[in-house]
Amino acid sequence: MSSDTSKQADASRRDFLTMTATAAGAAAIAPGVFLTSPAVAKPADEKVTGDKRWGILIDTQKCANGCTDCVTACQTENGWGGENDPEKHSSDEQRAQWIRKAELKDRATGHVISLPLLCQHCETPPCADVCPTGASFKRADGIVLVDKHICIGCRYCMMACPYKARSFIHEDLKDQLPWAPRGKGTVESCTLCVHRVDEGRTPACVEACTAENHNAMFFGDLYDENSEISQQLRKHGGKQIRADLGLNTGVRYRGI
Questions:
Q1: Residues with Cβ < 8 Å from 105, sequence gap 6 or more?
Q2: pLDDT tens, 187-242?
Q3: What is this structure's pTM?
Q4: How far, in Å, are 2, 3, 17, 135, 155 from residue 6 at the CA level?
Q5: Does residue 20 lie in a domain region?
Q6: 230 within domain boundaries
Q7: Which residue in 59, 68, 113, 179 could disulfide with 104, CB within 3.0 to 4.6 Å?
């Protein structure tokens, strides 16, 4: 088969799968396991472009030890870790964590930093590089996502992620939210609340942090020099975790 014919066949196959999923309203990822089709957050003809690069700046000096407002907000918004989520009762190694709080201690001085950890939304995401089906991918605007309909649960992306930002779902789930489909046998991670971003809103973690006047998280377009996040980075700077890997992360930290 020629290269052009092969490309046409692949495109036709993708179009067929897309139309089938849309018509059905839900897609089966395994026997007896279904994912609700995500809600459309913007007009279909409004394409995501590379004109923006969404990111988050986290000021660890303002992030209080013991505060989990960002984690709770993410759980509520995206439906993981709630009372009806069996994953909440799994072991720590198996429990889903889209965002988690970690404490870093300087052994020399004893100084402790409270650090929210989530998907870093890399410009060159290792998770997408190793995914055999294309389920792990990066949008043109920098948001890294997992297409649960074609994720086969191989977990290569989990091994490739240097930030331990992804979770594998071991349990049957219920009460899924339309904008955050989940399913047994698939991998998931922070979506940067893509459904909110597409509606012009702020991710739930950032909104919760601001609402409580902690003001430790800033969200915005890294390409817009007038955005608050760009101004904060220009004035005070920000660092990447494992900058040596050259991934150009969309999440930056101050005070580490």
A1: 111, 112, 113
A2: 999 999 999 999 999 999 999 999 888 889 999 999 999 999 999 999 989 999 99
A3: 0.78
A4: 6, 5, 17, 20, 28
A5: no
A6: yes
A7: 113
Q: How far apart are CA 241 and CA 49, in angstroms?
A: 26
Q: Is residue 17 part of a domain?
A: no
Q: Which amino acid is at 242?
A: R
> Would 10 be classed as within a structural domain?
no
8 Å CB contact between 87 and 153: no
Q: Give the span between the Cα atoms of 155 and 47, in whole angstroms.
A: 30
CA-to-CA distance for 145 and 37, rounded, in angstroms?
15
C-alpha torsion sign, points 92, 94, 100, 102: positive
Number of separate domains in the chain: 1
The string of pLDDT tens digits covering residues 97-108 is 899 998 888 889
Domain span at residue 237 reads 50-254
CATH number at residue 84: 3.30.70.20
